[in-house]
Write a structure and sequence with these properties.
The protein is an alpha/beta fold. The chain is built from eleven helices and twelve strands. Helix 2 crosses helix 3, helix 4 crosses helix 5 and helix 8 runs parallel beside helix 10. The chain is globular, with a radius of gyration of 20 Å. The chain binds ligand PBG.
């Protein structure tokens, strides 16, 4: 056939018509909002490189979580900033650690809000790496024990889901076994399965004070050049007991999201990371792009690529916009 019988513009004539044939939709139910928790009282400390995001003390966190819940966002993911760091990340798995306290408070006040906890050690380690370090080497197997303890302490506090982001080999299995052994077989694992050694984590590392003090994360996080390897990582995590698999970051890895979605019949999450957020915010603040439209275009593209859910610092803003108009 072809032109003049085919005229794609026919179905673009009006907004209602465009809506009828729209293939991808973003809804508030797709979004997970990351929150940073710190010690103190009455603290709501802005994060300079992430306009609109803050570090919250427990009381302020509760207010923020209420607002998030009232906007219809179904889930949050928590990141902790400890009081003290050491070489065994002790505060990551302390019973009264900042995350453990935050989970208890949030679950008590907002039992329906899904509380996901990031399971990692870098924020709690004096050297800022995601595992135990010996002679400059990031140790794999001895780290699994600490990660399991951390996940377990989150589950004990009442976390609805745990999300290991460390990229140690075998951590999903270690965490699954620890949870099952202690009576938490019902707690799902959202695995950061294909997590790349990315430049786009910069603002997060400022927010969470988690930058490595020597070297970088490329001996455990993935090489940005690799796509097939992402499928192997995802396959391993599913085999080890992951319930949801994640690709992170999102925008430079839309092809990976698509391949994961097409290869495995499991829910796929994508992390629209801090640097991706900061770029849009910075350009919008300079008046160089329309921030709202860019935000929605980005979220849409991540869903179109195949993500079922998106972790994003835009969650609140997008929820407000979606309450006014479908996208
Ligand atoms: C912890 C962790 C990081 C992010 C989430 N969990 C940082 C890192 O790996 O250095 C990044 C999130 C973001 O940039 O928004 N390992």
């Amino acid at each position: 056939m072809g032109f003049p019988y085919e005229r794609p513009r026919r179905l673009r004539a009006t907004e209602p018509l465009r809506r009828l044939v729209r293939e991808t939709k973003v809804g508030v139910e797709d979004l997970i909002y990351p929150l940073f928790v710190r010690h103190g009282k009455g603290v709501k400390e802005p994060i300079p490189s992430m306009p609109g995001c803050h570090r919250f003390s427990l009381d302020a966190l509760l207010q923020e979580a209420k607002e998030v819940w009232e906007l219809g966002v179904p889930a949050v993911i928590l990141f902790g900033i400890p009081e003290r760091k050491d070489e065994r990340a002790s505060e990551a798995y302390a019973r009264d650690g900042i995350i453990q306290q935050a989970v208890r408070e949030l679950k008590g006040a907002l039992p329906q809000l899904t509380i996901i906890t990031d399971v990692c050690l870098c924020e709690y380690m004096s050297h800022g790496h995601c595992g135990l370090v010996q002679d400059g080497i990031i140790l794999n197997d001895p780290t699994l024990e600490l990660l399991s303890l951390t996940a377990l302490s989150h589950a004990e506090a009442g976390a609805d889901m745990v999300a290991p982001s460390d990229m140690m080999d075998g951590r999903v299995r270690a965490i699954r076994e620890a949870l099952d052994r202690e009576g938490y077989s019902h707690v799902p694992i959202l695995a950061y399965s294909a997590k790349y050694a990315s430049a786009f984590y910069g603002p997060f590392r400022e927010a969470a004070d988690s930058a490595p003090q020597f070297g970088d994360r490329s001996t455990y996080q993935m090489d940005p050049a690799n796509g097939d390897e992402a499928l192997r990582e995802v396959a391993l995590d599913i085999e080890e007991g992951a319930d949801i698999v994640m690709v992170k970051p999102a925008l430079s890895y839309l092809d990976v999201i698509r391949r994961v979605k097409e290869t495995f019949c499991v829910p796929v999450a994508a992390y629209n990371v801090s640097g991706e957020y900061a770029m849009i915010k910075a350009a919008a603040q300079s008046g160089w792009i329309d921030g709202e439209r860019a935000m929605m275009e980005v979220l849409l593209s991540i869903k179109r690529a195949g993500a079922d859910m998106i972790l994003t610092y835009f969650a609140k803003e997008a929820a407000r916009l979606l309450a006014k108009k479908a996208w």
